[in-house]
Design goal:
CATH superfamily of the largest domain: Hsp33 domain
Order of helices and strands: EEHHEEEHEEHEEHHHEEEHHEEH
Mean pLDDT: 89
Structural class: alpha+beta
Distance between the termini: 59 Å
Shape: elongated
Largest sheet: 6 strands, antiparallel
CATH class of the largest domain: Alpha Beta
Radius of gyration: 22 Å
Number of strands: 14
Oligomer: single chain
CATH architecture of the largest domain: 3-Layer(bab) Sandwich
Strand content: 25-35%
Number of domains: 2
Low-confidence stretches: none
């Protein structure tokens, strides 16, 4: 199944849902950063949550970033995603290994830690980005982001995130965001029924692993509630905004003297992108071009 996200509504617009499959996207992140299993799961969940939050934004340049910083050994987990379906991210300690939890699953909660903060930045594409910080409630990512949605936006939300990671890599990864607009649903019993259905989902990733599509999952949850799946699927992919030109501009900040010293040593200068692990190496010839550009600007 190709990586994508779909959107849907139910209960005459009282429920909005977004589903995502990001298997190949998270696998690329794993390979780029050489992530352990638990680091892959933590970054994968954070990346998918970022894309799910971004999906509700309107401006084509809108982006959302999430940073979970708990008291666990993994350190900070960061992801930045856009309404265009692109995402990137990193973890502080990518090679961390932990034994499975009591249920035999990847122990993301222990890796991140339950004591700490979730920082959310929403950039709508213009003006000043919106920042919000809430305390972590579990370190499992899904519960923490759902808590943020309730505290910050007062919208009851259910967030399901899951992955299957083995020694060969990411077998499947996906997520679902369900938000209920209480004023649009007069029947409280229906809300309780939806919550009960969600609570019975023990492994969203397992459904996908067994061949279920996002539409299948939504139909199981909301098929009897006037489910309407929008016909457009948005491709999802790992993509970084770094570039060689940006690296060139950054290296100019070193100044002519330091650049000339590097040229004299005959060794390239390297820059490593924190978000995608891409390595840019600029040799003496390219560094000389930067010196020339700086001298041209310095001339009256």
């Amino acid at each position: 199944m190709a990586d994508c996200s779909i959107r849907a509504t139910a209960a005459d617009g009282g429920i909005r849902a977004v589903g995502i499959v990001a298997t190949h996207t998270i696998e690329e992140a794993r390979q780029r950063h050489r992530l352990s299993a638990v680091a892959t799961a933590a970054l994968g969940r954070t990346a998918m949550a970022t894309l799910l939050l971004a999906s509700n934004m309107k401006h084509p340049q809108s982006r959302v970033s999430l940073r979970l910083a708990g008291n666990g050994p993994l350190g900070a987990v960061f992801a930045d995603g856009g309404v265009d379906g692109t995402v990137r991210g990193y973890v502080t300690n990518p090679d961390l290994e932990l034994p499975p939890d009591a249920n035999g699953k990847i122990d993301v909660r222990r890796a991140i830690g339950a004591n700490g903060y979730l920082d959310v930045v929403k950039d709508i594409g213009f003006g000043t980005p919106y920042n919000s910080t809430v305390e972590l409630v579990s370190g499992g990512v899904a519960e923490d982001v759902a808590q943020y949605l309730w505290v910050s936006e007062q919208i009851p939300s259910a967030l399901l995130l899951g992955e299957v990671v083995d020694r060969q890599g990411v077998e499947v990864a996906g997520g679902l965001l369900l938000q209920v607009l209480p004023k649009s649903i007069p029947d409280d019993s229906f809300l309780a029924e939806v919550e009960a259905r969600i609570s019975r989902i023990t492994s969203f990733a397992q459904w996908l692993r067994e061949g279920a599509t996002l539409a299948d999952v939504l139909d199981k949850l909301l098929g009897d509630a006037g489910l309407h799946i929008l016909p457009v699927e948005l491709p999802v992919r790992f993509a970084c905004r770094c570039s060689r030109q940006r690296v060139r501009e950054a290296l100019k900040m070193l100044g002519r003297h330091e650049l000339q010293e590097a040229i004299a040593e005959g060794k390239p200068l390297e820059a490593n992108c924190h978000f995608c692990a891409e390595v840019y190496a600029l040799g003496p010839g390219e560094l000389a071009e930067l010196v020339t550009e700086l001298e041209a600007v310095a001339q009256p």
